[in-house]
């Protein structure tokens, strides 16, 4: 999608300081030093209990076409510092011109339910190359994971109802709209109004008419009849232009005409007013006229909380059209993903583990070449353990709560598990077969079905256990002591 939407090199989709650091690595002879970075987030969005990983498809597309073209290099070469001189010399531009990615990347597959501090991506390669990828990878993963999570929450409320994404007109630009449509579909929506997203991703597209269609005719009934005449196989009538319940009655008249011609009234749509009351009354009108299978579609700034309230009130809505609150992640418009250095290869070939300190415990990073092991029992997933792949796991594995060392849990070798990160790129070469968007969408629902229902609560959700393997916990603790002591000296 990126290559189709943007007919240009995307290597400059980055922050300037990534280029200035890359220049510094190159000038100081560190450009090829092997490093490992982890991409993760610190807190679930929406005060929830789970997050859906999304965006890997876009990451793969981006990296497969990564290059600096002549226009990119000319622009970089034109940048100046505070003294008016060029920021980057010609030798560095030539280095970028010949740059080919040789990074190895492991990732948690799209559609996987994930938790704070778990690496969604692990990037290993020359430190200059890894550094250049920080901003674009965060951009691609953060937003799509956010929207997929929002969509999954709405699917939990909707249950078997149909969910339609209507957000393009309120989305944050063309890319925000197309990307959000894909992420919403992954999260559990059934279709989108976004035709471009339908073309790119094979997502079903849905839509009928707006208020302007009705207003352009002398009467609502004439508008409905005209639409049904010309599109008899796609009739959902927007009934609230003037009076919602009268609109439903007009829709019934048109439905009878459709049946006479061998078609049927697919649905009526409510876009304003008391949706609980109007849907209940509309259902009565439709049922009394013999249109028991006609859908009632509702829209109007809906989100999971309003949907839940409407269901509690007995609303007779079975199709939900959701736009603004979904595609903008209205109540939390950003996922706080970060990209942290975790290890550097020394001249002797050993790993020098790295950790960022902070006065805030949540912002202290974790060192190591990390993998996530998900344990399960007969009821589903029970716990995730982050471990260092350089440390052999032999026999019983013990994990420690990173924020409370008194809490720990052990698993013997008989406990079933899955290691979540899988190889995607090996030294720059794609080795991963990307599932279809439909398979990824199904993965989300399969994953959620295997978690304790408490993590799916919207208010005070259950905290799913995620810990550090004991050796990794000790490594992190010792590094903290070492760095604090060195800083105090």
UniProtKB/TrEMBL annotation:
Record-annotated Nicotinate phosphoribosyltransferase C-terminal domain positions: 371-476
GO terms under cellular component: cytosol
| The organism of origin for this protein | Dyadobacter sp. 676
Molecular-function annotations in GO: nicotinamide phosphoribosyltransferase activity; nicotinate phosphoribosyltransferase activity
* Keywords, alphabetical: Glycosyltransferase, Ligase, Phosphoprotein, Pyridine nucleotide biosynthesis, Transferase
Ranges in a coiled coil: none
What protein does this entry describe? Nicotinate phosphoribosyltransferase
The segment(s) forming the Nicotinate/nicotinamide phosphoribosyltransferase domain are 164-345
Chemical reaction(s) catalysed: 5-phospho-alpha-D-ribose 1-diphosphate + nicotinate + ATP + H2O = nicotinate beta-D-ribonucleotide + ADP + phosphate + diphosphate
């Amino acid at each position: 999608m990126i290559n189709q939407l943007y007919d240009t090199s995307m290597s400059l989709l980055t922050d300037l300081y990534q280029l200035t650091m890359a220049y510094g690595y190159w000038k100081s002879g560190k450009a090829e030093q092997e490093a490992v970075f982890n991409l993760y987030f610190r807190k679930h969005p929406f005060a929830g209990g789970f997050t859906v990983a999304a965006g890997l498809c876009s990451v793969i597309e981006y990296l497969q076409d990564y290059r600096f073209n002549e226009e990119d290099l000319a622009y970089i070469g034109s940048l100046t510092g505070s003294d008016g001189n060029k920021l980057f010399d010609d030798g560095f531009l030539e280095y970028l011109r010949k740059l080919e990615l040789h990074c190895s990347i492991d990732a948690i597959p799209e559609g996987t339910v994930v938790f704070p501090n778990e690496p969604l991506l692990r990037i290993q390669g020359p430190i200059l190359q890894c550094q250049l990828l920080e901003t674009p990878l965060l951009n691609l993963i953060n937003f799509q994971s956010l929207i997929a999570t929002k969509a999954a929450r709405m699917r939990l409320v909707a249950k078997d109802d149909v969910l339609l994404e209507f957000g393009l007109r309120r989305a944050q630009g063309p890319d925000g709209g197309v990307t959000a449509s894909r992420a919403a579909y992954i999260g559990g929506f059934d279709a989108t109004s976004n035709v471009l997203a339908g073309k790119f991703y094979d997502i079903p597209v849905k839509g009928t008419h707006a208020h302007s269609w009705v207003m352009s005719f002398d009467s609502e009934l004439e508008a409905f009849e005209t639409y049904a005449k010309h599109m008899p196989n796609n009739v959902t009538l927007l009934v609230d232009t003037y009076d919602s319940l009268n609109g439903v009655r007009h829709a019934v008249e048109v439905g009878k005409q459709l049946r006479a011609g061998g078609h049927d009234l697919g649905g009526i749509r409510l876009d304003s007013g008391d949706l609980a009351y109007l849907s209940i009354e509309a259902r009565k009108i439709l049922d009394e006229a013999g249109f028991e299978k006609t859908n009632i579609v509702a829209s109007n700034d809906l989100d999971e909380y309003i949907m839940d309230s409407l269901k509690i009130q007995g609303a007779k809505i079975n199709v939900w059209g959701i736009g603004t609150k979904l595609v903008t992640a209205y109540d939390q418009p950003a996922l706080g993903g970060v990209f942290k250095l975790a290890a550097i290869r020394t001249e002797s070939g050993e790993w020098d583990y790295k950790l960022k300190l902070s006065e805030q415990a949540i912002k202290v990073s974790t060192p190591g070449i990390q993998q996530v092991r998900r344990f399960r029992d007969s009821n589903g997933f029970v716990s995730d353990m982050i471990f260092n792949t350089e440390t052999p796991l032999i026999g019983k594995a013990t994990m420690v709560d990173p924020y409370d060392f008194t809490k720990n849990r052990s698993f013997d070798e008989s406990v079933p598990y899955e290691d979540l990160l899988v190889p995607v790129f090996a030294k720059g070469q794609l080795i991963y077969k990307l599932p279809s968007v439909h398979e990824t969408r199904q993965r989300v629902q399969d994953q959620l079905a295997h978690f304790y229902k408490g993590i799916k609560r919207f208010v005070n959700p259950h905290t799913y256990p995620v810990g550090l393997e004991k050796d990794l916990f000790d490594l992190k603790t010792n590094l903290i002591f070492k760095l604090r002591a060195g800083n105090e000296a």
